[in-house]
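REVIEWER CHECKLIST
Item 1: Sequence provided? yes
Item 2: Single chain? yes
Item 3: Sequence as submitted:
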Amino acid sequence: MEVVFIMTGVCIPSPTRWLLLGLCFAFLKYQADKLMTQFDLKLGKPYDGSKPAVMTMGKAFDEFILEIIDESTIMVCYPLVLLLICPLEPIYQILFLLKLIVAPLYYIPPLLAKASMVGVTYGLLNLPLFMFTTLAAFVLSLIIQFIVLLLIYLNHRCIRATTERPRMGGHEVGMKRFPEQGHVIDINLKTPTHIN
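Item 4: Structure as written out by the authors:
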């Protein structure tokens, strides 16, 4: 069974799809472990008071930009995994979706315990550090996904614009819509004129 992406017409053979799924899950695990390590290094194991309990938004963004980038790459990778899971048999879809749902439950509680000790303020808004980094990563991932989809759309439009309109034997074929008859094929016979 092969996956066909409709917009590009790209076929992904089954062994390649399984390889991509394995790489995506390995990448997600690597990014989650890296994120845990970064929070451990910046916040310390227990809250020792070396970091201020409240940070401004600018300082938190500057100090935790790597964590925001790692969270956004995880968020961008999830839709890719879902696209790769869709054509699989239902039992594999259920297993992989369960893995996608349960895996964050292993990583999120320790991150919440570490990052909830530090707050981020902006005016009257006061958020825990983990919520701030998650919201910033979500916005960044939406921007990245929008740019990727826009590039795919523009590429598709450019390819369609450069292809010539189909012709049948030198005659232009067009479609006209008549409400009472549905679609009717209109063949315009244009004879070439020769200048002697």
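Item 5: Key structural point noted by reviewer: Strands lie at 3-5, 10-12, 54-56, 119-122, 125-128, 167-168, 171-178, 182-188.
Item 6: Recommendation: ____
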